[in-house]
Amino acid sequence: MNGETFRNWQSVQDEVLRRIHAREWKPGDLIPNEADLAVEFGCARSTVNRALRSLADSGLLDRRRKAGTRVAAQPVAKATLDIAVIRHEVEARGSRYGYQLIDRQQVTPPVSVSGAMRTPATDKLLHVCALHLADDAPYAIEDRWINTNIVPQAKTEAFANVSANEWLLKHAPYTHGEIAFSAVQVGQDDADILGVSAQSAAFAIDRLTWDNDASVTKVRLLFIPGYQLRTSL
Amino acid sequence: MNGETFRNWQSVQDEVLRRIHAREWKPGDLIPNEADLAVEFGCARSTVNRALRSLADSGLLDRRRKAGTRVAAQPVAKATLDIAVIRHEVEARGSRYGYQLIDRQQVTPPVSVSGAMRTPATDKLLHVCALHLADDAPYAIEDRWINTNIVPQAKTEAFANVSANEWLLKHAPYTHGEIAFSAVQVGQDDADILGVSAQSAAFAIDRLTWDNDASVTKVRLLFIPGYQLRTSL
DNA sequence: AATGCTTTTATGTACGTACATAAAAATATG
DNA sequence: CATATTTTTATGTACGTACATAAAAGCATT
Questions:
Q1: Which nucleotide is nearest to B49 (CA to C1')?
Q2: Per-residue pLDDT reduced to its tens digit, A3-38
Q3: A112 CA: distance to closest CA in chain B (Å)
Q4: Alpha helices (H) along chain B
Q5: From the CA of A56, how many Å to the C1' of C12?
Q6: pTM beyond 0.90, yes or no
Q7: How far apart are CA A41 and CA A170, in angstroms?
């Protein structure tokens, strides 16, 4: 081709993407090494590295030292979901946010909870149930367990006006967590709260967060039927 | 403190993370600028930049030119989901994968489909329905529309042995896509295929992929009740 | 006080060199 | 011929300098 130069990493990335989409480099193909591409593109190797690393991060390229870089045979679609505070999510939809505390008690949890949170079975945990509303209509039920050994300040927080969802972000740091998405049939209790018929299909997000080896909180968010979690690829 | 040095970007990242978790830098706080941190950590600014950029990518820091870097007040949890080929997903669970074609027809789609795919309402599209199995038990229903104007080779592919899910990855490039997760009540037809009772709650993934301005394919994957999509934070 | 222009500053990025590291390939050794 | 050992090579990253760029802050003009 011509002597066109690609002088920034985004344009290098775009050109690599173009070649992949145009099938000049097919899935599984080994592509030229960084040094050669740098010469071809008229830029530094570090610029090519930045572009290729970014594409590898998003799953389009597979890179291995010495073995080189190849176009991913099965481009694993990496969908990045932004799990925001529910209030923000509701407000971002242009709805008025509402919050209602249903229950707040320091109780001994079922073993399924103490087991998952790896707390002694006899320890009491703070159980908080609340309803999030959008334009005064039920939006999601938050059913949460808080490890008050790790977050003692929660013992004095009523959660009457601020949801635990939001309060914890400000007051409880965490190092990592697990999250699971599933579909569940709502039971009679939850159906009544959400104002839907029992057996409806609700979207559930289960989340367990840790501060190093100690569990911080375990929560199930149960969204009204029709809820969709979306993102782009 | 002491004159400890952090000579690679991961250790700088770890130290920044430690300070955030230890609440030395609280949510909303402005942290020192890159140049100062570089001096403190005994490394180059570019190393600090790499570490902070990475943390910003994962949503823990907010960075703006001139305004500086601050700890995210509401750390948006970015959950990265790997949407793999179903066969791989099943095999990764240690199950034997099975595949069964249910239907394959070139037909005029409902307007909801042609509308979403932005194809002329009178154009015929290829409709492929199939069942994915794990250890001979139903696992997911794939209900797919393929734009044969963009992927003409699909017209001669039977999809009897290879799922469209897998075939398209190899044969149809795409530039971007949209994906939505939801919970749905399964209808009688789907319930029969999945071998579950009607009204069960099933996890659905709806995906629409594009090659520049042209839609490539639209698919709904309906998973058996109990299915969970998991990831870590 | 409101408006537009200028300066300052922190992040964003390009570059080239140097070295580290993993892993494939080649070679030596039993 | 199988198994260690060495060499080669492509990616991974650190560094320091230079410049680009966005946006806040200061200044001037009305």
A1: C11
A2: 567 889 999 999 999 999 888 999 899 999 999 999
A3: 17
A4: 9-21, 34-41, 45-57, 86-92, 111-117, 164-171, 188-194
A5: 21
A6: no
A7: 46
